[in-house]
Amino acid sequence: MIEIKSGEEKEVSLQIKTLMIDPEEFGELDMSIVDVLQRILYEENVSSEELQKMFSSDETNSIELFTEATLKLNQDGNVELSYRENEDDKEMSTLSKIIFDPKAPELVVMTKEGALNTYLSFEQGATHVCTYDTPFMPFKVYVNSKKVDNRLLRDGVLKLNYVLNLNGTAPQHFVVDVLMKTVPSAAFEFLAEN
Asked: 65 vs 17, 87, 99, 103, 178, CA distance in Å?
């Protein structure tokens, strides 16, 4: 259990795995990958070995990020987990935040501020109309959350499984796994092993 008090900030380490499935390529995927995706969608058990195979497949787009972050309660009493993406590239640097009410962890908001600005809401079984700002114009984004498993404060784990539709384009399926450790830097060795 991770306890955070008002006004307190904790430095933490994050491992974030993001898997994106492009539906136009879905028919070409290895059937074992399709099977794992279907079981994830229907909330059936999937082993860590199967997930690892799916994340490392050449047929899926996956990103793995190891970074340090700040965990705090913001002025509204919500948990806020802040971290930087693309820090080395000034033009693409982004401040990302995962925000939720500790009394209602089933609703998770993810914001990104920087090169692109987004505000996405995740709530299992619900579709939220969100915003995706580009330098040209803002777009409506429809986020249909298949699974939201937020145990960040209890176990240091957040799992999101959602479909994103952007202005009538083909929907894209995302699976995001966040693992948080309260010991910064030293936790990277642990995270890299798991």
From this structure: 7, 12, 19, 28, 9
Instruction: Give residue 12's identity as a one-letter amino acid code.
Output: V
DSSP β-bridge partners for residue 183: none
pLDDT in tens, 182-192: 865 554 554 45
How far is the C-alpha of 161 from the C-alpha of 67, rounded, in Å?
21
Exposure letters 11-43 (e unless 16+ CB within 10 A, then b): ebbbbbbbbebeeeeeeebeeebeebbeebeee
Q: Residue 59 in contact with residue 29, Cβ under 8 Å?
A: yes
Going 162 to 165 to 171 to 176, the CA torsion angle's sign is negative
pLDDT tens by residue, 33-56: 656 666 665 556 767 777 666 666
pTM over 0.85: no
CB 125, CB 162: distance < 8 Å: no
DSSP string, 167-180: TTSPPEEEEEEEEE
